[in-house]
Amino acid sequence: MKKLIELVAHKHHIDLKRGEAKYMDTDWLLNAIIDEVKEVKDEIKPNNVAHLEDELSDILWGWLTLVEKLKDRGYVTSHEAILQRALKKYEHRILPLKGDERDDAIWEELKAHKKEELERERVNSLKKS
Q1: Roughly what angle, to the nearest 10 degrees, separates helices 2-18 and 49-72?
Q2: Measuring CA to CA, which residue among 68, 86, 77, 79 is closest to residue 125?
Q3: 107: part of which helix (H) or strand (E)?
Q4: 40 touches 59 (CB < 8 A)
Q5: pTM assigned to the model
Q6: Residues with Cβ < 8 Å from 108, sequence gap 6 or more?
C-alpha cells in the first residue's frame, strides 16, 4: 500500500505541474470512481479474475488519488489516517456482532454512538482552530 500511495503522490505532482483542472477536480474524480464501480459490476462473472481484479484496482487507484487531492487541500490528513479510522470504526462495529437477530440493533446503536463521537471530534477541532 505504501508504494501505491507514493505513486499517487508522484502522479499528483505531475497533475499540479500540468495544471489540468479536471485532474484536480474532486467531483470529476468521484464520477470517475462511480464509473469504475459500474465497470466492476460488469466484470463480476465466473472465470473473469484478471478483468475483475483490474477493475477493482481502478477503484482503489481512484480512491487513493481522491485522498491525495483532499490531503493537498488540507481536508484530510493522510491515507494512513483514513485507513486507521476505518480499522477503528469497523473493529468497533463488527467485533460486538453475534451473528443473530440482535445484530441489526447492535449495529444501529454503535453507528449512533459513532455519529455522536464524530460530532464531538468536529466541535473540538473547531475550538482548537
Answers
A1: 60
A2: 77
A3: helix 103-128
A4: yes
A5: 0.88
A6: none
User: Residue 104 is placed in which grid cell?
Assistant: 441489526
Integer CA distances (angstroms), 36 to 8, 99, 121, in order? 17, 32, 32
15, three cell numbers: 497533475
pLDDT tens for the chain, 129 residues: list them: 999 999 999 999 999 999 989 999 999 999 999 999 999 999 999 999 999 999 999 999 999 999 999 999 999 999 999 999 999 999 999 999 999 999 999 999 999 999 999 999 999 988 887
C-alpha 83, offset from chain centre: 8
Cα–Cα distance between 84 and 8 in angstroms, integer? 19
Measured CA to CA, the distance from residue 29 to residue 23 in angstroms comes to: 7
- Secondary structure class of 46 (helix, strand, coil): coil
CB 106 within 8 A of CB 66: no
Q: Give the residue carrying C-alpha cell 483514513.
A: 82
49-72 and 79-94 helices, crossing angle to 10°: 120
